[in-house]
Amino acid sequence: MKNLLVFLAVVLLLAGVAMKYANEFPVLDETVKEKWSQVQNQYKRRADLIPNLVKTVQGYASHEQSVFKEVTEARSKASAVTIDVSSIDDPAKLKEFEAAQNSLGGALSRLMAISESYPQLKADQNFLALQSQLEGTENRISVARKDYIEAVKDYNVALRKIPGKFIAAALYPELKPRATFEASVTEQNAPEVSFAK
Predict the structure, then answer these.
(1) Which domains, ranges and CATH numbers included, belong to the chain?
(2) Which of 56, 117, 119, 188 has the greatest CB tally within 10 Å of its CB?
(3) Is the pTM of this model over 0.85?
(4) Could you give the CA distance from residue 191 to residue 189 in angstroms, rounded to a whole number?
(5) Residues with Cβ < 8 Å from 141, sequence gap 6 or more?
């Protein structure tokens, strides 16, 4: 009888530990999805600001049509490449999304560089407000991406640690490690700065 009680106590203890880990995976999975939604939310905010910024700059620099076209096309492409939470596990889609967002970021940088040539534009209150909002949005994107990367790390580590690894394989075989953001080759290179005119 005593052996049976000890056996039952050990089984209950193991079941309790297993339940703790079993319940951890859905929470981590949903956290990753929530963080990805925040990343998309911030990219959407940036895309929404761009038309107003382009209109303001166009008023001062109407002959810079190639840059305006580039920004508009990059925004269109970035808006067309979306990843819903059901496909964030696809590294190829994540790379495609990131490439479209990087292209838009580069086009925005060129648009902002135009403003340096137009002192009246740099003093325009609408431009200054839009520029400030865009800078704030870029910071929010950075924070959202950092939070997403941390959530993916926690999720991936939980899938690889013991005993979670075995519990996830038994109870949630559909859960796989997730990819995260990677800096492109151009983002890893130091920017070239030139003061020559």
Answers:
(1) 36-141 (1.20.1440.20)
(2) 56
(3) no
(4) 6
(5) 39, 42, 43, 46
